[in-house]
Amino acid sequence: GGGSSAVGLLGPAPPEWCSPALHSDRQHAAKAVRCLLILRQMQLELGPLVADPLMSITAELNLESPPLQANAATSATQGNAGQESPLPPTAELPLQPLSPKLASRLLEDPLHMPEELADGYHEGHAFELGRRDRIVCGVVTPEGRHTRYLMFHAYLLLLVQPDLVHSGWAVVRTLAPVRMVEPRIDNKDPRTLRLLIRLPKGANCPSEASPWDASTDDQFRPPAEEFRCSSFFLLTLSFESLHRCQFAERHLCKRRVEVRAQIRNNVEAFVERMCS
Question: Are 151 and 201 in contact (CB under 8 A)?
Answer without folding.
Answer: no
